[in-house]
Amino acid sequence: MEVRDQTYVDTHSHMVPSGDDGVKSRVEALDLLREAAERGTAVQYATPHANALFPLTPERRRVAEENHAELAEECAAFGLDLQLGFELAGEPWLLDEDPRDYRLGSLPVCLLEFPLPYTDTTTLDLVTACGEHIEAAGLAVLLAHPERCRMVHRDLDVVRAYKERGWLTQINSTSLLGRDGTTNEHVGWELVLSGLADVVATDSHRAQRPPFLDEVHDALARRVGLDEADRLTCGVALPAAVP
């Protein structure tokens, strides 16, 4: 297999301590981020949760921003661009917020997650409404881990309909590598093979779920070819950063 120098772009991780279920300290984050850079990641987006379970209070935002500032300086020393964004849930509170306050670093993009099984959500109406709210603010919508959503398990055309609106989709590397259950693995690969995936990211939380994209890049290269593996892991589909 041809080997290329990689510059992975990871759009989804919990690598900045914020009081959510991600890393708990800057030391823990720095060890993982240093190894991610050694494995080829050039840009890492830390995306703390902003949802009903982990509300983004002013205090949580302050903690996240301060930890990000410290970590970003340290990461720059070993060539990693660490940016801060948020993982948004499709919930009513978001409709009263300015999505520009939650975008992915310098990208004109918001990361909006599909509801996970533990939420017992039965429709995607709020995801759609929140995505339209993000669009109205002049930002692109990046839909996180559709392969983990029960409604997508039942009907992949749910994702196709969002793609037809121009919304982007992000698949978790753990799903494709079989580390998040057989259903999520199957649906994740179906989305990739059907051309319904734009980005593969780690959704990393800790050492047991690390921010490393090299292994999934190899798995993608074997199944869909090197060019497509690069497209999915190197941020090709993302809009250009705002100066």
Q: What's this entry about, in short?
A:
38% of the residues lie in helices and 15% in strands. It is an alpha/beta fold.
What does this structure look like?
This protein has 243 residues and is α/β, with parallel strands linked by helices. It has one domain (8-233): Metal-dependent hydrolases (TIM Barrel), CATH 3.20.20. The chain has 9 helices and 9 strands. The protein has helices spanning 26-38, 58-76, 125-136, 150-154, 157-164, 173-176, 182-193, 214-224, 226-233; strands spanning 8-10, 41-46, 49-50, 81-84, 87-89, 109-113, 140-144, 168-172, 199-201. The strands form 2 sheets. Strands 3-5-6-7-8-9 form a 6-stranded parallel beta sheet. The chain has a 3-stranded parallel beta sheet with strand order 1-2-4. Helix 1 packs across helix 2 and helix 8 (214-224) runs antiparallel to helix 9 (226-233). It is globular, with a radius of gyration of 17 Å. The protein starts with 7 loop residues before the first strand and ends in a 10-residue tail after the last helix. The model has no long low-confidence stretch (mean pLDDT 96).
Number of domain units:
1
* Architecture (CATH level 2) name: Alpha-Beta Barrel
Say how many strands there are. 9
Fraction of residues in helices?
Answer: 25-40%
**First-last Cα distance:** 37 Å
Q: What structural keywords apply?
A:
9 strands, 243 residues, TIM Barrel, 38% helix, single chain, six-stranded parallel beta sheet
